Amino acid sequence: QVRLAESGGGMVQTGGSLTLSCVASGSTSSIWRMGYYRQAPGKQRELVASISVDSSTNYGDSVKGRFTISRNKARDRVSLQMNSLKPEDTAVYYCKADLKIGGRDVWGQGTQVTVSS
Known about the structure:
mainly beta
């Protein structure tokens, strides 16, 4: 019922900025939290940032102070503003929606972010 469409990935130099966007469609009222995870080659997928219906946010330790997640009023779109990017931020970034029913989740297709030195 819920589908996620991601955009905004690309290549930037160290210290640059990039903004990711994730738009949800379908039964968006069933979403209670949206956010981003990322996965680099050879590493486990990790939380980047998330925002819940009550507007509470969580950030991975490695991105605190550099990334900011926000959500629109309709609560069907999240944006991830990434500043002061580092090569270590290079990964595929996946949007994720956590649904209210049964702890289900929905994943976006992923978008590549590459930060060069």
